[in-house]
Every structure is written in C-alpha cells, then in structure tokens.
Amino acid sequence: MNRITSLFQIKYPIVQGGMVWASGWKLASAVSNAGGLGLLGAGSMYPEILQEHIIKCKKATDKPFGVNVPMLYPDLNALFNIIIKEKIPIVFTSAGNPKTYTNYLKQRGIIVVHVVSNLKFALKSVEAGVDAIVVEGFEAGGHNGRDETTTLVLLSTIAGKVLIPVLAAGGIATGSAMYAVMSLGADGVQVGSRFVATPEASSHIRFKDEIIKAKEGDTQLTLKELAPVRLLKNKFYQEVQKLYQKGTTKEELLNLLGRARAKKGMYEGDIENGELEIGQVSGLIHELKPAGTIVAEMISEYKMTQKRMSSVKF
Fold first, then answer.
1. Which residue, among 136, 130, 131, has the nearest Cα to 148 in the 3D structure?
2. Alpha helix (H) residue ranges in the chain
3. Residue 7: what pLDDT?
4. What is the mean pLDDT of residues 203-207?
5. How far apart are CA 314 and CA 309, in angstroms?
6. What is the pTM of this model?
7. Residue 37 gets which letter from DSSP?
8. Average of pLDDT values for 107-116?
9. What is the mean pLDDT of residues 162-185?
10. Spatial distance between the Cα atoms of 230 and 262, rounded to a whole number of angstroms
11. Quick one: 3-202+285-310 is in which CATH superfamily?
C-alpha cells in the first residue's frame, strides 16, 4: 500500500475523475469494483439525483467510492447535506475555495481532497486542512488552470512543497504515464477522459464516438474569462473562436454559452452545438473499453514500465 491506497482503502492508486455528464453510479461502481476509487460527478446532478446515484452505487459495490463537488454549484448546502446523510466517506472539491467546506466536512469524518492548478492553491489547500490534493495540468478537460501549466511541470513544482498525498491529473490514460508522474512524486493518479470512453459512462454515445475519432490537436483550452475548459473543436467551438477574433466581451461569451450547453453536447449528444469537454489525451483513445479493463490494463502497463526502467543503466 502507499499513501493514497491507505487513505482511501483501495487496491490501486487510481481515481476516476468526477466528470459532469459522465460520472454516474455505473461508472463509479465499476471503477471501485476494479480496485480504484470511483467518484460520482455531482456537478451535473440536482440533490435528489445525486442521492439516487449514491443509493444505486451502494447497491452496485461494497468498495469505497466518493463524490466530486465543483464549488461553482449554486446550492452546495443541499449537495453536502445529501453526502452527509448518506455517509459518503470521501469528497473531492474543485473549482473554488477549499476553505469553504473542508473543516465542516472533516468534522463529520469525511476525507477531503481538493483539485488545484497552481502552487498557490496547493498551499492554500494544505492550510485549509485537506487530506490530499489533485494536481491537474492544463492537458485535462473540464475546468482548468488559466496559466496553461502542464502536468509534469506543475507536479514537479508542487510535489516537494507539500507533505500531504498528491494525485496527478491531466493527460494520464496509460500505465506508463502513471509511472512517469509517480516517479515525479505523485502518490497516485486521477484519470478523467479515458473513463468517458467506456460503456459505463453516462455520456451520450455520440460524444464517446467523437472522443474515439479525435486526433492530436483536436482540443483547445478556451473560455478563460468564464471558467477555462478544454473543448473538442466543433461548431460551437468555432463560434467561440469567431467572437475572440472580433474582440469579445465576457457578456458576449456568456450569451453564446447560454444554459445547459455542456449537457446538450455531452449528455444529449448534440455534437455540433454542444460543449464537448475532454482532455488532450483523447487523441490516444481509439476504442470503448469497460472501466474495469482500463484499470487492469493501466496496472499491467505500470508494472511492465517499472520492470523495463529497473533495467535501464547509465
């Protein structure tokens, strides 16, 4: 065991990202059953929907699982009330101030992990009392850092400056990538995009097909004035770029984004007009695979890489 497997009481130091419109009970339970830590993505769930997914997840696995809560959510109290009521042992918070709920959750026996995109917020998270942090580089999909710091650089900057366990995220979909970041000081990995292209993910099949078709360079980090996200280049993305080319304002971007744009793309399958959030690593994903298979293959490849590197001499 290492610090992450010990903290979460799991077999492998692999955490499934709590992605909006992808991370329902089927995906979370599948990852947990495979030995990782599954997360429910509360960012796309009303409180009653979250409760429904928690109940179903408990029936589908007897292994630990958690909930990811973006701090941008408008009614955080309602979500956290459900989490506490259902005795969820692990909460990942993201896209907000870790001080807001960390102490409140820890007083109720909940392990708290916060996602950060720079050293400043890593140190603030430690100060807030979190149990671990996720260091997420700009390769990742979803809400992202404005500084465009890559995972390897960010991890190298942070790992030696905090004493709590560190998970690396952003651009990780293979066991060899897992080995690389753990060599740089990570205690484990959080994997998002690779788990979207699974039968268990709740995303629409048309979105999954677009991920499989994606090639190098088919995603771009954008919408920094609102909340930075990495998007597949579709019709909606091109409309965003046209606004930037003419010199846009935050208000114009908000008007274009409108309501439920991410739901339209990732959950309802409107691949032209929807927002398709996914990481750079989509260019490495060429087929749908069950979540359990992905976990097993990552661990196998990690061990193969470990063996290969042990024979490297200089």
1. 136
2. 3-8, 25-33, 47-60, 76-85, 102-106, 119-128, 151-158, 175-183, 193-196, 205-213, 235-246, 250-257, 261-262, 291-310
3. 98
4. 98
5. 11
6. 0.96
7. B
8. 97
9. 97
10. 12
11. Aldolase class I (3.20.20.70)
